[in-house]
Amino acid sequence: MSNEDKKEMSIGFLRLLPATDGTGRCNMYVDPRVLEGKEYDNERMVRAAWLTLHEALETESTQQKGIVFLVYLEGALLRHFDRTLVKQLANSIRGILPVRVSGIHMFYPPYLFEVLFDVVAMLLGERLTKRIKLYSDDDEAVIHDKLMDFGIFPSRLPSELGGGLEFNDGKWKEHEDNCVLEGCSKDAAKKAA
Description:
It is built from 9 helices and 5 strands. By secondary structure, the chain is of the alpha/beta class. Helix 1 (3-11) crosses helix 2 (42-57) and helix 2 crosses helix 4 (83-93). The longest helix is centred in the first third of the chain and has 16 residues, at 42-57.
């Protein structure tokens, strides 16, 4: 991995949470706010996302049961959404990378997003729309109860969502470097957080 790629990886836009959830799916944490004020190259950011997704797909249960995306949107504004990056990422994955999306949980979306979601949901289709859950005004205890219904336990959530995971960026960067150089395993993912 080049130094430029390491820079994009270290931003932490898309992070694989350690261990699988209660049903054997990998959980990805997405925080678009981390992109604000950062200079990055979209192509390298897509490559960083690919590396993270490939790591998740190394777990056989994830290949079978899919990935759950946990999208943290509290305080997010329109400027936090790089539409070009999202489009490039979606186009690079669609039909190429065997990623099964089991669920998308969006936490504290901006009001405008909630309004537009109803319109977008019609375009996504019923199957994908059923997999998307919005958590707007719920407090952490309510969110934790709802997530436990999906096999996602509070102890496996990042601190931003009231969970016990703290990202140690030094270990995270070292872990990502090792994944590219040596290949990853489920055990290596546990050491990342």
